[in-house]
Amino acid sequence: MLDKNDRDAAHNRQHFEQRHMLAINLVSSPGSGKTTLLEKTIKALRDEVTFYVVEGDQQTMQDANRIEATGAPVVQINTGKGCHLDASMVHRALHAMPPAEHSILMIENVGNLVCPALFDLGEKYRVVVMSVTEGDDKPLKYPNMFESADVCIINKMDLLPYVDFNMEKAKEYALRVNHKLVFYELSATKGEGMEGWLNWLRQEHMALPV
After folding, report:
1. How many distinct structural domains can be found in the chain?
2. How many angstroms separate the Cα of 114 from the Cα of each of 28, 108, 180?
3. Where would I find the CobW/HypB/UreG nucleotide-binding domain in this sequence (predicted)?
4. Is residue 17 left, alpha or beta, with left meaning phi > 0 and alpha meaning psi from -120 to 50?
């Protein structure tokens, strides 16, 4: 199964490269704030970047409806009992859109810190989102996800004064698993600290081949 997924992921990656697209896989546990982060990101950059979104959930169209309200084209994938997206699902979603050249494809994976770590979707970057309400030991409990990520967003910073979360420990644990991780601390709901994340997206988009 993983071998087939890797072949499908390689096909997706080739498609993204040929169309000069930036594909990003957003992963997290449920309730970390991925959809809110995605909404705020699209709204902030929609005059600069064309976004397309693949939404992964076990059931409902709720998140896709929220993204559709931002004006970005979106395809909802409901996995039923499945706990992750795979590369073939993303491939079918691409044909249902299809995305334009020089665009950004945001893939919001099913909320789960275990299964999605195993499945390459053909993305260029994997961004793991953790929130301060989850506890600072998530990187140690779910090392495969953090080891496979390129960027770690620590969300819900506005709640930091009210929860037992040690920022230094969280980063130390994450870097212990993956010393190359880049961090962005923000509150998607309040919009605080978003600029670093937005600038990273801008730079990666500008670096796409013409």
Report:
1. 1
2. 9, 15, 20
3. 24-181
4. alpha
Question: Residues 189, 165: contact at Cβ < 8 Å?
Answer: no
The reply to whether 10 falls in a domain is: yes
Q: Given pLDDT bands bounded at 50, 70 and 90, which one contains residue 28?
A: very high
- In tens, the pLDDT along 101-140 reads 999 999 999 999 999 999 999 999 999 999 999 999 999 9
Structure tokens at 148: 């496979």
| Range of the structural domain that residue 133 is part of | 2-191
CATH number reported for the structural domain that contains residue 93 in this entry: 3.40.50.300
Q: Does some domain include residue 71?
A: yes
Task: Write the CB contacts of 164 (distance below 8 Å, at least 6 apart in sequence).
Answer: 135
**How far is CA 81 from each of CA 37, 58, 70, 77, 115, rounded to the nearest angstrom?**
25, 6, 28, 12, 12
